[in-house]
Amino acid sequence: MSKGEIYLINALISVLPLIVILVLLFKRVNMIAAGLVGGILAMLIGGISLAAANKIFLDTMPLLLTIMVPIINSAIAFAVFKSGGYTSALTLMNRAVNGRVEMMAVFIVFLQAAATYMSGIGGGTAVVLAPLAFAAVGVIPEVIAGMSIAAAVSFTTSPASLESSIYSKLTGVGVQDYVSFMRPYWIIFSLIALGIAYYGAKKRGVLVQPGSPVEQNTSTDAELWRTTLPAIFLLFSVLAGPFVNKAVGMPLLSPLVYSITTILLIAVCTKMKINDSFNALMDGSSYILTRLFGVGFFLTFIYMIEKIGAFKTIASIAQAAPDWLMNPAAVLAGFLIGVPAGAYVGTVLAMIIPVTVALKFSPLSMGFVVMGVGLGSQMSFVNITMQALSSGFQIPIEQVSKGNSPWVLMCMAILLVMSLVLV
Fold it and tell me: Residue 178, SS3?
C-alpha cells in the first residue's frame, strides 16, 4: 500500500467511533449507551488502558460540576415557574391588550424567550407556557414556530443552560463572555420569532378562548403585578446584572444576591410559603444536575475518541475547503445533525465543538455552530421542547415539525449569511 492509502485507512478508523455514536443517536439510543460503544471502540483502536480511561473519567466529571452559575439560574427560574409568575404576566398582558390575539401571541413568545434565557431549559418553559398559549390563542402554527425558535436561540445562548456550559468547557471561553458576545444575536432571532408570531396571529385572527386560565384569573391587577415581581427581578438580574455590578464596582447583583432575593420575593409576593420557595429552588437544580451528570459520562467517551486523533482527522479534511466556506459549512453540519438528534443538543455539541476548536474557529464562529444545532433541534421529533409544544397545543408532533420547518429554515438561512459575513 502507498502512504496515502495507509493514511486514508487510519483516518477512517480514527473517526469510526464517532460515526457509530451518530448512528446510534439517530436511532434514539441513550446518549451514555451510544457513547459507551464509541468509547470501547476508541480503547480498542488506540490501545487505551482501563487505568487511562478511568483517569479521563475522574478528570471530566468534576469539571462539569464546577459550572455553578447555570445550575443556580436554572434552579431559581424553576422556583419562579412554580410560584405562578408567568401565568400572572400572561393574564396582565391579556387585560392590557383587551384580548387582541396578535399582541397576546407576541407576548407568549416573549415569555418563552425570556423564561428560557433565564432557566436555560426550553422544554421546561414550553411545558408551562404551551397549555396557557393554547388556551389563550388556540393553535396558530406561527405562534408555535415562534416559541420553538425563541426557545432554540435562548437555550443555546443562555447563562443558565447546559449548552453554554458545554461550550465553555470545550472552548475555554467563560460562560459570561460567551453569553455577552452572543446576546445581540439572541436578541435578533428573538425579535424574528416575535415577528413570526405576530404575522401568524394577525393573519389567522384566532380569538382568546373563553374559559381559559388567563380569562378565569380573578386576581386584581395589583395582585398579578405582585406575583410577577420575582420574574421581573430575575430577568433584570440575569440581563443587567453584569452592567450594574461594573457600574457600582461591587457584585451587587451576584448569583448569591439575586438567588436569595428572588426566593424571598416569591415568599413575600406570591402564595408560596418560605419553605416551599426554598424547596422549589432545590428541586429546580435537579434538571440540569442530572443532565450534567449524563454529559460527564458522554464527554469521557468523547475524550477517549479525541485521544485516537478523530477530531484532528476531521479538521485536516475540513482544512482542504476554502476558508470562506468553513464557517457556514460547520453551522450547516450542526443544523443537519441537530434535526435527527434533537433530543441530544448538548451531546451533539460535545462532538462538533472539538472539531471547530481544532480548526481554530473564532469564539463567535463556534457560537453560531451552537445556535445552528439548536435550530435544527426544532424540527426534530425527539426534542423535548417539540414534545412539550405537541402536548400543550394538543396536536401531533409531526404537525409541530411541519409548521416549524419553513420558519426554522428561514432563520437558518439568516444564520448562514451571518456566519459567512460576520466572522
Answer: helix
C-alpha to C-alpha distance for 182 and 175, rounded to whole angstroms: 11
Domain residue ranges in the chain? 54-288+309-423
**Hey, is 341 helix, strand or coil?**
coil
CA dihedral 88, 89, 95, 96 (to 10 degrees): 160
Regarding pTM above 0.85, the answer is no
Q: Which residues contact 42 (CB under 8 A, 6 or more apart)?
A: 17, 48, 301, 304, 305, 307, 308, 310
Rounded CA gap, 203 and 212, in Å? Answer: 22
d(CA 43, CA 31): 18
CA–CA gap between residue 165 and residue 54 (Å, rounded): 23
Structure confidence by residue, pLDDT tens digits, 225-277: 999 899 889 878 877 787 888 889 988 988 899 999 999 999 999 989 999 99
**C-alpha cell belonging to residue 52:** 487511562
